[in-house]
């Protein structure tokens, strides 16, 4: 079975079960996944998600925000806060 054939038989329910198995390290019947099974399941989930889900819904997606190129975050200087009171150790 090649990757395309495998992805053709997967559906959202099966992928959810594979993800759960990877997360908890067990199959639904309680049998522990081997290291190889965990790797294969993760690869199958990622491959299926790449083919069937938008980027924002895929496992591992990190929202990088909407900053334009060369735009920097505001720096926060606590000394400018009215409520800022440094702690003094005696």
From TrEMBL:
InterPro entries: DUF1315 (IPR009749). Residues 59-90 are annotated as: Disordered. It comes from the Bacteria. It holds the Pfam family DUF1315. This is DUF1315 family protein.
């Amino acid at each position: 079975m090649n990757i395309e054939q495998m992805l053709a038989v997967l559906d959202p329910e099966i992928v959810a079960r594979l993800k759960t198995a990877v997360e908890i390290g067990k199959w639904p019947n309680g049998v522990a996944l081997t290291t190889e099974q965990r790797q294969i399941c993760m690869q199958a989930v990622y491959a299926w998600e790449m083919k069937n889900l938008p980027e924002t819904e895929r496992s591992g997606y990190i929202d990088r925000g909407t900053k334009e190129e060369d735009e920097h975050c505001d720096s926060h200087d606590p000394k400018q806060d009215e409520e800022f009171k440094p702690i003094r150790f005696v």
